[in-house]
Amino acid sequence: MPHTPISSPPRPPTAQLAPPAPSAGPGPPGQQALTGPQSEALERFARLKVGAAFLEQGMGKSRVAVELANSRAHRLDAVLWVAPYSVLATVEEEVTTWRCRVPVRFLGYQTLSQSDLTYLDVLAWARRQRLMIVADESTFIKNAHSKRHRRLTEIRTSADYALVLTGTPLTRDLWDLKRQLDWLSPKILATDDRAFRYRYFTMHQRIQRDGSERVWFETHTPNVAHLKSLMEPYIYEARLDVGVPENAREYEHDVSAPTRTVYERERDDFLDAWAAWGQDHALFRMLGNLKRIAATDPDKCRSVAEQVAGRHTIVFCQYRKEQQQIAHHLDGHLLVNGSTPAAEREQIYARFRTEGLPLLLTYGTGSFGLNLQHVNSCHFASMPFNYELVEQARSRIRRMGQTRPLTYTTHVSDLGIDVLVAQNLRRKDWLARLVRHEIDPTGTL
After folding, report:
1. Whole-model pTM?
2. Dihedral sign, CA of 255, 320, 302, 431?
């Protein structure tokens, strides 16, 4: 059903490959049995050359991919496993744990897009292999115009089998699904972008104050069932039942007078630009600036620090300034962000297992790959626009094997931007659409 892969006779694995684990039947002694969802996913993909495992974080997606590769070991020379760079070490550890019997080459999405030499090397190597390719956290390739998507698509043409893994397949709209399925095989949906837009979206038009016309598209719900019917044979989706109660809390914090003044000035500048020419770049600039102003308010950060002080919990922040301000008000804490060296991060994570202190993380460094189920609460000091980051962050503690009730606490300011972000995350939509097409900015911001 997918395009015919390019294959060749077996060749010895290159030095860049992780060697296959020794064959030991279904796995090493004492290896835990497959869960129900894992077994069902393997059964779904057994006769397919492509598949999408939409399993929530903590459900063992990596093991599904390993077992699938093992079942095809006699037809494969290698596995190419592509994942966000920040989780590659975790993925390698899991592949070793589950004893993949096929040599595995690991590649970061960031390396794929940034290094021409690596891309050309992997592409040439892939053309010499009977290959299975795994796109882990596949929403990283949802932008069809990105270099990583185009390059991974080119490599995909040489693979006999392809699998996508993610717990959040849809983070904005139906285009996320189309990009992932088209990468697996364009024959699944068998439709170009223009036809897809007019089949599964409804076009809206509005005349602006200056007389110009604005056009946008929103999901056409009646046709979604048809789209689902096309995808269903190639998808296995399951939600994680951790078996413990889960609680969500929200605290609203007052902001300081200087922050409110800066916020209102930024908002008014945006509204003037909106009324004058309605350009998108004014909208995007305003959204980012208002979010940053609200998140980094000193009064709000001090209030968040009071909520987490002395607790063994995780605190997710969007901005380093926000993270530093919260840390300033804590007598004891652990902190990781993009400037923390890799070796030091591992030491901090090890300390966090035994020290009853809050761990302050930025979404970029903490929302993917970490298994922190030894704690049972997390705080969102501020919320990002991206639904996927929130779900990934929750999944650091929401994993199989968790035995205690879970609590997720959201901290918001009393400024309008946080109302819009909350609506955005509930809808899994793009915040700009809420402002531009559905909400009167003067009534919410």
Report:
1. 0.64
2. positive
